[in-house]
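Dear Dr. V.,

Thank you for agreeing to look over these. As mentioned in my earlier message, I'm a first-year student in the group and I'm still getting used to reading structure tokens, so any feedback on how I've presented them would be very welcome. I ran two proteins. I've put each sequence directly above its structure. The first is here:
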Amino acid sequence: MRRAEPQWGTVISVDVRDPIGADPLDDLFSWFRRVDDLFSTWRPETEISRIGRGDMEPCAAQQEVRDVLAACADLKRETNGAFDIGYGRKLETLQPGQAAIDPSGYVKGWAVGEAAGRLAAAGFENFSIGAGGDVVVRGGPDPADAHSLWRVGVRHPWEPKQVSMVLGLRDFSCATSGRYERGEHVVDPRDGSAVTGLVSATVIGPDLGIADAYATALLVLGEDGLPWLVSHPGYDAVVITSDQRVVLTPGLERVRLS
């Protein structure tokens, strides 16, 4: 069963390869809508927008919001500030879509990972879920072949309709952060300087929310951040530099198909 719907400013696609008796996807897409209702920075009534304005205390928020804020606080410490959802508080004015608190660099991956957990809990073993540059896969595309691999494309930073490489994955997550979406508006939250060294960073690992945040942090840290990334067991990366070099960690090289 395949289904795709626009959400979060992108398209969320779900591809389930197991035999399906009842449609499990209505509940899944209801979850995606709930995430938008809680975390959209474009809507003033969401809890994350209200917290950013000071209209709501974090302790009064829904459990999902409190969990995300706690995870993002941990990630800020872990990345020494390279991942910081509170950068907007340093700005005198906020542009549309900007927020004093913006956990988008974690929430998309976290929400897709949560959706994967729901499918797995319902007994499904072979599926993929993708939202923009974030993908989680379980099992393989051919349930009859225990060695089949999902082919996950990494977007080409200069050719939007092309991929820069294809990865072969099972039971893994993949997240990409790139300057091609916001251009020179990507900044280092530690000092507000423009990020220039990397054009894109792709991280693979077991947890999509963490991979998403690590990709954002790696874009800020630059090529020198790769040793930091691989110090985290289970996570690997490929980065594309502004001078068009492609740098892969050993674990990423092992899953590269083309």
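The second protein is here, in the same arrangement:
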Amino acid sequence: MNEARLGELLREVPIPEAEAAERRGQALVTAAFAECAAGDRAPRHRASLPRLVLALAIASLLAALLLTPAGAAVRDWVDDVFTAGVRDAEPALTRIPGGGRLLVQSDAGPWVVKADGSRRLLGRYREATWSPRGLYVGTASGRTLSAVQPDGTPRWSLSPGGVVSVPRWSPSGFLIAFRAGDSLRVTAADGNEDVLLAGHTGALPPAWSARGLALLAYVDAGGVLRIADTESGATIWSAEALPGSTGMEWAPDDSALLEISPRTLRLREVELGKLIERVRLGPPRNVSLPQRADVVDAALSPDGNAIAVLLSLGGARTPRSAVIVTDPTGAPSRTLLRTPGRLSELAWSPDGSRLLIAWPEADQWLFVPTEARGRVRAIGDISRQFAPGTSGTASFPQVAGWCCRSP
């Protein structure tokens, strides 16, 4: 057993009589403050005794806080306030907490990271997307859409005319949607039958039905949210999109559509008939968020029972960030993380047990448990891990996907 693992196990061991230790520390501090106040009114030669008592009381309280599980949160809070990032972060990603595989987009191209932390650079591609079971990766580079295996072996490529962007592989595995210029196109997963679905669309990435139906949600250039049947090409539902939308996502069972903007999260209930042409979306319902908070990122959990939201809480001079988990039905939210600085993105683990949270200013990834149990794992030096051979400052990478949800 190595020293790091031993330290991890020791931190998890409950300290005997933790609550009693905290109560004693609090009582000492209260008494010390009272004596200190009396000492200020007493002759000067007696002032040293209350100060000594106060110092001993504070030392006792700090010991109680630092050595008890209840004090762990306070200790972490103190660390967060006075440090940029989590202190003593692991220097390399040697294991993915929560399992699965990561698809990471860097300046050098997309990387596939296995559960044991080993990684492979796929090539000079600008964007990438997982196939539903992680057997392939769809990539975009210039005017070319390609499919490659996770080991980098090319399978096929096509050039539809126009710069290719935001490729999205259907959960069914049979189709890939992408933009070519400002048009939205769909191709079969073998690279054949490339067809135009809509012209003059917005830059927002399209969103496939999570159940694998041939339904694709997108926003056109006029700000209209549309749902199209990709088999017939027909628009089967439309309404005004959320202004300033930065993302959208179907619930895992297609029962709702989540729309994301910097100021608002909103859900629309979805009713699917037996025929694909019969789709109805209910009126939009805003998800409750803290006041004076901007939404940086948000994502539905793999089971659809929660929404993780990354919030910016401060201005440019004193930025602060928080990650909350809220219930789509409107139940009170709970805070997973609150820290100074700017966090940039989040992603659910396939099993829903962890959130990967990116902290570019600290050059760290945080793997945060979504339940009360477990501990945060911080991985440092992220930029250089995905920029081999770089002599200067490396750019912080983006998480393009965490594979794979169960079908």
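From my reading of the second output: The chain is about 20% helix and 35% strand. The helical segments are 3-12, 18-41, 48-67, 69-82, 382-385. Does that match how you would interpret it?

Kind regards,
E.
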